[in-house]
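To fix ideas, we reproduce below one chain and its tokenised fold.
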Amino acid sequence: MLLLRDHEQNTAVGKLVEDHTRLVRATHAGEADLTAVHAAKLARALGQAARSTLYRHTVDDTLRAGWPAAEALDPNEVLEGLFPRLPLLGKGELSEHGEEAFTRPLADFLHYYESSGTTGNPVAAPKAVDDLVINTINIGELWAQILEPRDVALILINAPFAPAAYQFEKVLEYIGVMSFRPWVDNITGDYSRVLRLIETLDANVFVGPPSRLLEMIQFAHRNKLAAPRFDRLLLMAEQTGPSFVRHLERLTGGTAYVCSYGSSETGTTAVTCRERNLHLQTQSYLLELHDGAGTRPVDGAADRGELVVTTLDLPARPLLRYRTGDRVEIVGDPCPCGVRTPVLRTLGREQDVVTLSGNGVRQNDLEAALWSTELPDHTVFNYMLVLRDRGVVLLVTTDGPPEESWNAMVAERLAPLFPGLAVSVRPVETLPPLASLGQYLGWKLSRVLDLNDEHNWSRLPEPINTVVVESLRQLEPDPDPDPAGGSV
């Protein structure tokens, strides 16, 4: 899995692979003593965190001084006595002191990455050898239910400074699947080479964000090229609801999986199985839920709240009780795939709600109205909402120029979501480049262009701000508006 010249390091990695693979399989089978595993790993993580200056800002000296002795404590005392006394770690604190979370010099890491930093400062997220090995096995043991060595996978992730693309490449190596990882420019959006490689290599698996897949399909249609077909879609980095999934399956002929859940900071917290359920990686994380009622451990029972993550297998960068900001639901029922770890469903974030005239509109609401059933006569590939004054314009790309009556029919279908506002539909040849940046910006910033609120855009860093400026330029009123050209 890794080629390391140093013999001792190579031997240590080999032992780590064997030990962790054994633990993952025992956890999947429900045979691991997770109380003992969590207590032992947490004790080590506390000892490692004691060497991290991050916790000088968040934990009092008395509590921190006791961490190195945690390995001598009874497991229940570690989990029930010491752990609940630790304060929660917020995103702001981690962003402000991110580089102080490390317990070893940066040169000791294998790769340097950063989180995207689209709406704030990026957080350093380098990968150490042990981190990479463990995360690869955690993902690979479940993806092996879905993929086979005869598959060929396209990894289409335009995020070279975040770890996901490389991490997934290592997972596919672990399973024995050939992959290729091309790049597509965000502005020109030329997918010619990617489409040629898909056909030449007979690629049957897509790995990447849904917005990138949609843009590639639109490019093929616009240039009269064969649309790519896949057996399986492993989707990541964007909120993808049921209507969106079914839409992608209709367009590609494949079975879609939301392949993983996590972050650059925490690693991969949950992974899909063949039943399309996200399984929490309880062998590598201590997980809690937080809401107005308090903070409580994830124990497998049905529950919901904000996910709080403690990393147990990131010794070079431990995070203790990190508030992810993500609302999730724990499904209490066992999964038919046989894996005995809790199933997680993501519920999005509160900031993903667009409030218009006092009404909240979520991504799933809009996509259910647009894609829950096929629209007659035409297929809508993709969309963007543009808000201006008291009006809502839905920009859509379609498989042919619709009649004005079709536009009115779609607008009527969407109108109940936007009471008190004028709703119209405008077919366009291409969406503004912003629509392909869902993996960086999330749904609200990439698909909802609010021309009434300049604050959302002024705070975005380069080079994403350049894409926003180009998107806004494309939407400037045309002195001779042409509906087919997308003027709003």
